[in-house]
Amino acid sequence: MPTDILMPALSPTMEQGKLAKWLKKEGDTIKSGDILAEIETDKATMEVEAVDEGVLAKILVPDGTDDVAVNTPIGVIAAEGEDVSAATAAKPASNGSAGEPPKGDTPAPAAAQAEPGQAPKVPAQPKAPSAVAAPPQPETVVDPEVPEGTEMVTQTVREALRDAMAEEMRRDRDVFVMGEEVAEYQGAYKVTQGLLQEFGPKRVIDTPITEHGFAGLGVGAALAGLKPIVEFMTWNFAMQAIDQIINSAAKTLYMSGGQMGAPIVFRGPNGAAARVAAQHSHDYAAWYSNVPGLKVVMPYTAADAKGLLKAAIRDPNPIIFLENEILYGQSMPVPKLDDFVLPIGKARIHRPGKDVTIVSFGIGMTYALKAAEELAKEGIEAEVIDLRTIRPMDVATVVKSVQKTNRCVAVEEGFPQSGVTAEIGMRIMEEAFDYLDAPVARVTGKDVPMPYAANLEKLALPNVAEVIAAAKAVCYRS
Amino acid sequence: MPSTSPSLHIPEPKHRPGASHDFSDMRPPPAGLLDRPAIDISAGQAEPLARGLVRVLNEQGEAVGSWDPKLDPDRLRGGLKSMLTTRAYDDRMMRAQRQGKTSFYMKCTGEEAVAVGAALALRPDDMLFPTYRQQGLLITRGWPLVDMMCQVLSNSRDRMKGRQLPVFYSSKEAGFFSISGNLGTQFSQAVGWAMAAAYKKDSRIAAAWIGEGATAEGDFHHALTFAAVYNAPVILNVVNNQWAISSFQGIAGGEKATFASRGIGFGIPSIRVDGNDLLAVHAVTAWAAERARAGLGPTLIEHFTYRQAAHSTSDDPTRYRPADEPEHWPLGDPVDRLRGHLTVSGHWSEAQHEAFITETSEEVRAALREAESYGTLTDGPSVSPATMFDDVFKEMPWHLRRQRQELGY
């Protein structure tokens, strides 16, 4: 039986890469362990190693192809002695294997068709499902701040964040970015791609490895009148910087009687990615949400990431900007405007509905939106609200929705006790208790440090089924 | 002309990709130059050791000078075997990652002598607080490769029950503290452990490792302060492998002073050692251990070495350093150097070495076969979800029991 060689994943979050070079040609004999090809991602070069033995019957994706999706068949190995042409013909027979993207008639998107060396700006068709979290459907709700008829460009959240920083750095020479690996390496998650080249090493600064140290430096530079963007490789590593963030950045304006404050943005990936375990998966939204003097932003869409980061950089207060590694690679429409700035502290109705309000933020929105889709099939129209900013919280938008639907489910990846959803529940009780037809329900992560193993990780996180069950429960539907 | 106004200095390595390696300004002092002092020296007296480089093996492979630990040939062969096993293990697990059997791996290629030399010099029950690049400690202590592999593959025999990142081993039995992804935390913890041991009049000592990049962390400075103030029986090792992912050691302050010399200001006798010379690593570790056991307190050791491999499987060093740098490191390769020494002293042959490599490679292969029979990240049995709520606390509280039941376990 011929076997497909699939595009491998370098890491659990990798979705695509470049097929740089084939080291074997069609007709070559392959032994297990042979290096077949070289793959490049934005992070590294890797080798594709043969697991099966036989003859390389067919190369499906040629040298130099960009954006080959993980799990796309890139070649076919036929058994020793098997007719090579027969092997190629037999290929569609491998269709339908569980967990793999469609093969055969459906060519791998952007793999066979993209011109080498040029990544298409707007994919002609949706991306193939990845091995990890499937990207959400493109957003259909246009932000009210965007004028009618504005052209939308498709960007990843990563690119949107980079553009926000680049635009603000062009606009204001006081803005600079610092952190570990932000310059030469272009960011541990490539969010600062190209910034060193454009702005030079005095505005894009690789720091020594000490979050507490460079957070303090950032506060000092902000007090001196600059506008630092401090990138944390992950918010988990910022735990040692929390003294600078809370006791200095958040409180200095108040303690100095309003004389001096710290206009600074602390940003980086927050919460769970995939297979990175307890010390790289913690969601700190609730932590920072508790602190006077801080504004806490946690965007979900690429457009919000861009508009809110620009607003954060201009804001005269310290801003906690919580990103998400899984969202970095997801493509969504971003309005093409010269200066797209969104207001901090304003929620957005992402999907209108009348039967139940689902409130979430950040990656929690992916569960909320998928649940809303499923609920719609059963006749329940959920209104999904993206908080976008955790502090100050736009309670008015939530209350208005609850006054209409009389039911609410709050969703977050963080832990239940003292979580952001606990706050949402309390605020609704304070301001819309008489409108409720059911107690507010919440869906959160489980009360365990994040495990590594995929099966445990999946269980520890909230899921769509739990959101659906909670929505049905508050609607008294089974 | 000197600058007339304040200016910022941004450290830059000498060369980036595209250029050739350049170690012309690195002139390693000859082996045997520095003498082994008495164990009760002061920090000030140790200054030449902190700014120099202790080396035992010379260019010809002979062991020279008073630091020569004079290990018998069996012990040397044991050291070589441990280094070769570590290297073969790394290569095998790296390939397992490429084959999708695990999600992540980190090699220590080129730095094997740092861990192996120390493990040989310490007692088997001394407590180790390593980073993620001292797998050689476990291997030298004879910890089963299968057990390590099961952790990396996250299978049904993973002693950490599917909870920790690959290579973040921990083994109470082997005296190997749990690896932390938040850098540097183990450094002050090792000092705390050592102080507790001294308080309990325990004869065991602690040893900790940290990368040169992470010496910028507060934990490094806290550890040195407390170790010096309380005379803790601890060996504080800085592994200067030149690269913290893409940041060269100058970013951590290595341009201005050696990492070992930082200890002098704290009042800690400190030594900089050729980290690719197993005999030198063994000798300074044994000296430091003797000091700690004699109640003379801490020692700081900088291991001057080179990270030949990528930082991790998510990294590609050819993006930020000349591709030919690793093979031209002026202090050579630790395996080649120990092999050279054994050969020169008449205790080793080409045939013996080849046989050793074949044997090691077979052992690693067999271990992986066994480990894979218990499952891999993507295939075969894994940890039961019923265990997910265990060990959050010593006893399971009611709210966790309820969350477990809600999941159907």
TrEMBL record, chain A:
GO MF annotation, one: pyruvate dehydrogenase (acetyl-transferring) activity
SUPFAM superfamilies: Single hybrid motif, Thiamin diphosphate-binding fold (THDP-binding), TK C-terminal domain-like
Positions with biased composition (Low complexity): 107-134
One GO BP: pyruvate decarboxylation to acetyl-CoA
Keywords, ordered alphabetically: Lipoyl, Oxidoreductase, Pyruvate, Thiamine pyrophosphate
EC number per UniProt: 1.2.4.1
First-tier enzyme category under EC: oxidoreductase
Position of the signal peptide: none
Ranges for region Disordered: 87-149
Cofactors (names): thiamine diphosphate; (R)-lipoate
Catalytic reaction equation(s): N(6)-[(R)-lipoyl]-L-lysyl-[protein] + pyruvate + H(+) = N(6)-[(R)-S(8)-acetyldihydrolipoyl]-L-lysyl-[protein] + CO2
Span of domain Lipoyl-binding: 2-78
Record flagged with keyword Oxidoreductase: yes
Gene3D superfamilies: 2.40.50.100, 3.40.50.920, 3.40.50.970
PANTHER family, per the entry: DEHYDROGENASE RELATED, PYRUVATE DEHYDROGENASE E1 COMPONENT SUBUNIT BETA, MITOCHONDRIAL
Function text: The pyruvate dehydrogenase complex catalyzes the overall conversion of pyruvate to acetyl-CoA and CO(2). It contains multiple copies of three enzymatic components: pyruvate dehydrogenase (E1), dihydrolipoamide acetyltransferase (E2) and lipoamide dehydrogenase (E3).
Subunit-structure text: Heterodimer of an alpha and a beta chain.
Protein name (Swiss-Prot/TrEMBL): Pyruvate dehydrogenase E1 component subunit beta
Naturally occurring in which organism (per UniProt): Enterovirga rhinocerotis
Automatic annotation (TrEMBL), chain B:
EC number: 1.2.4.4
Catalysis: reaction(s): N(6)-[(R)-lipoyl]-L-lysyl-[protein] + 3-methyl-2-oxobutanoate + H(+) = N(6)-[(R)-S(8)-2-methylpropanoyldihydrolipoyl]-L-lysyl-[protein] + CO2
Dehydrogenase E1 component domain: residues covered: 81-377
GO MF annotation terms: branched-chain 2-oxo acid dehydrogenase activity
Protein keywords: Oxidoreductase, Thiamine pyrophosphate
InterPro entries, alphabetized: Alpha-ketoacid_DH_E1_comp, DH_E1, Oxoisoval_DH_suAlpha_N_dom, THDP-binding
Biological process per Gene Ontology, one example term: branched-chain amino acid catabolic process
Domain 2-oxoisovalerate dehydrogenase E1 alpha subunit N-terminal per the UniProt entry, residue ranges: 5-43
Names of required cofactors: thiamine diphosphate
Sequence segments annotated as region (Disordered): 1-36
Domain of life of the source: Bacteria
SUPFAM superfamilies: Thiamin diphosphate-binding fold (THDP-binding)
Entry function: The branched-chain alpha-keto dehydrogenase complex catalyzes the overall conversion of alpha-keto acids to acyl-CoA and CO(2). It contains multiple copies of three enzymatic components: branched-chain alpha-keto acid decarboxylase (E1), lipoamide acyltransferase (E2) and lipoamide dehydrogenase (E3).
Record PANTHER family: 2-OXOISOVALERATE DEHYDROGENASE SUBUNIT ALPHA, MITOCHONDRIAL
Family the UniProt entry places it in: Belongs to the BCKDHA family.
Protein name per the record: 2-oxoisovalerate dehydrogenase subunit alpha
Species: Enterovirga rhinocerotis
